[in-house]
Amino acid sequence: MEKPWSGRFSEETDEFVEEFTESVSFDRELALEDIAQNIAHVRTLQEAGVLSDEEAKKLIEGLKEIERNIREGRFEWKRELEDVHMNIEFELTKRIGDVGGKLHTGRSRNDQVATDERLYLKREIEEIVNLLKELRKALVRTSENSVDIVLPAYTHLQRAQPIRLAHYFLAFREAFLKDTERFMDCYRRVDELPLGSGAVAGVDFPLDRHYTAELLGFNGLVRNSIYATADRDCIAEFLFACAITGMHLSRLSEDIIIWASEEFGYLDLPDKLCTGSSIMPQKKNPDVLELIRGKTGRLYGNLVSLLTTLKGLPTAYNRDLQEDKEPLFDSVKTLKGSLIGMRKVIEGLKVREQRMYSNAGNFVLITDVANYLAQKGVPFRKAHHIAGSIVAYLIEKGKRLEEISLEELKGFSELFEEDVFLLFKPENVADRRKTYGGTSEESVLKMIEVAKREEGLS
Length: 458
Description:
Layout: H1 15-21, H2 24-27, H3 31-47, H4 53-71, H5 84-96, H6 109-144, E1 150-155, E2 158-164, H7 165-190, E3 192-193, H8 209-216, E4 220-221, H9 225-230, H10 233-259, E5 267-268, H11 287-311, H12 325-348, E6 350-351, H13 353-359, H14 366-374, H15 380-397, H16 406-410, H17 426-430, H18 441-454
Parallel strand pairs: 3-4
Antiparallel strand pairs: 1-2, 5-6
């Protein structure tokens, strides 16, 4: 099959080269974006007087027919035509004749692919933002049902201080809100049209790029033709946003995996989201969460892969840039699946309240014993030492903090009174954190109301 660029060459392309350089096996993911761009380009050529009304009508009708075939899965992709762009153009010319050869007037595949990718990114960012919103809503609903549940927060994976479970879920809601903002901020930079930049220097036809941008729904134009064809910054930024979101999903997965273990016993996962063992009948494995955690490595790898491809390229377009698509498509698929999986897990969690509450007592409360003395005028460093001495004493005696008597406490400081025993209830200690963003019931309820308003749940 004759290549569109074959005029300069005296030999047919080696079969290895065709196989090694083709991209249609994966870039046909951009087919619908390419059709939309082609139609807008035809209308721009028509508006500029480069195409007659009849030619434009014929081209657009042919493109819409090909679009229907693609949507129905009836379009035959040919490897020897290299990429999605040439497959569509070849088929168009085959169907409507020589006028199909006018489609590429005033355009290069360099600005064409950059435009397709930005159209694709706009669509996928909108879908990811919607999936993030659904996950945030699930976290808010779960928080509403968890205000009265107290458990220990962990630092260094050691029990630290009592918190309300709702406060924990709201923490991840905040993380995913920031992720959403990152994607939306990325969208602003994606939302600029490269088409009309040609191969590298612009085009010598009177094309109104603002008109094309309006047709395709872009908010602005990429202002420099070299940057337009060489740039993959917006894809790298998108992959970074995917990687950060994946990191948050992975950390949440890790917490839930640990908390659902028999050793912790804080949570039960829904059976329908777990799998069993081929050899051990008792096993209930959190495979969805483990795969979300594992797939984060793919999101990181895709980002590093693209950055590595870009770092040594001479300006402007080089064929290396073909390698941007597979990491992009893989990250989109991976992240969307992970977001759906996590939402399902959050919606199906069952909490073992008593187990959580039991672990929120004892030495988890000792910080507030130190604060009790500090509020009575003892320098905090001295109060900290006294509280630590109480812990050492109770460990030696094999007792919990709740079991100590006032007489024993007074052996460490005469400032202890009966009111100190109010600090031996985890919910009372949690409710002392009344600062904005703290874990007191009052603060948590306020933040739930804020979150519900922001998510459209109230």
